[in-house]
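Build the 3D complex.
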Amino acid sequence: MVQKYQLEDKVLLAVDCIIFGFDEEDLKILLIKRNFEPEKGKWSLMGGFLKRHENLNMAANRILYQLTGIEQIYMEQLYAFSEVDRDPAERTISVAYYALINIKEHDKTLSDKHSAKWHSVTELPDLIFDHPEMIIKAMKRLRRRVSSKPIGFELLPEKFTMRQLQKLYESILGEKLDKRNFINKINALDILIKLEEKDMNSSRKGSFLYQFDAEKYQQKVEEGFSFKL
Amino acid sequence: MVQKYQLEDKVLLAVDCIIFGFDEEDLKILLIKRNFEPEKGKWSLMGGFLKRHENLNMAANRILYQLTGIEQIYMEQLYAFSEVDRDPAERTISVAYYALINIKEHDKTLSDKHSAKWHSVTELPDLIFDHPEMIIKAMKRLRRRVSSKPIGFELLPEKFTMRQLQKLYESILGEKLDKRNFINKINALDILIKLEEKDMNSSRKGSFLYQFDAEKYQQKVEEGFSFKL
DNA sequence: CCCTTAAGTGTTAATTATACATTTCCAAAT
DNA sequence: ATTTGGAAATGTATAATTAACACTTAAGGG
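Done.
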């Protein structure tokens, strides 16, 4: 038997998830109304505690599943928040994760059960603890990532239009982009499949639908290609 | 009194530090010989446990001070490592930090006390646990950061030559850079002070010494400038 | 005073990024 | 059948940035 680290302080380790979704125009975050103390009734990120048999990724997956019913969610560890008094109830360190989901495809009975609601990142409600700080950090990380990895597609339905993709990038980056330059760049990357099919909702003419070609992307990466937008 | 989170599992929270230094030619990491079980006698990153009254940054600072005697060290939180069996002695989550120091200016009596040695990143010894993974992640982070923030100077003495700076970037980025282009870029940033003084060690002619102008940099940042190399 | 060695220095070509306006297509209304 | 409205689709010219490249200078040591 190996000797243990006697006498060292132990702490509660929480995982909080910044869940991003995209709805036509706006980047949104899924927030829950806390139904337990402290700060019961306030808005909060979905969270939970790390269990003995789990690593942090597993905990984050479990927590994301609880709220969305989705099993394979794109997520990334963000940062460990550790101010001594960040949670007034008890010393708790929280490791924040951000996740990207298709806003149309989560289980609404589950999110309703947690009184969860989507909030536009531009008008967030009052949040508990250091959750605003977590969200700011998540936004920054997402902004950087989305320019160097093809993760934006996680926020869109499988088939999407160029305009949707552009709107997505605009709302993440917080700036207007030139339509032609955007399309030229995307096409130059050569990682989308243009479908025959059109989306007829946005205009009479309709606009072509595209799909992300994950295999082609993978192959290009192995050949030294790197996504850059 | 607020209610506590009963029944949740608590864990030990460690902090491990990847301490980078730069010695003429090579990017190096300061490693210690572990003088306690488990894995006593093997190489390891300097680490310690989070204490009740500390946040993670404070713990990292404390640990860095213990080994180097330096109080204001540039450091950044890297990632939380949480595999269930990462430490065979006991369930421990470790939050890794990386730090940049001037290799010439740490307290050698302290590092000797921990049997610490500098190892070139290109020839690292066997390390305990998941420390190799931590180092890989730190290298990647450092590579990205060094191109977008003027943190490389943390690894150099206050006065340095252009050649030293270039060698530093080359060893961090792992690629040769063109001398003229490098100097042109650096000069275009306009954040260095060229001194009258020359360093006569490297050549007969001697090479001019430079200093990072932190104030000027700050001012430029406030005016919207962003470092890019 | 000649040799050695690293320091210092600019220009051109290639690539990449930006700015920008017109035509096409389709359905709905007449 | 024809017109009309509204978003989709499309390419080029210019500017800005990045990459490639070789000779001269300075100073100490022999």
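Helices of chain A lie at 56-68, 108-113, 131-148, 162-173, 179-189, 214-222.
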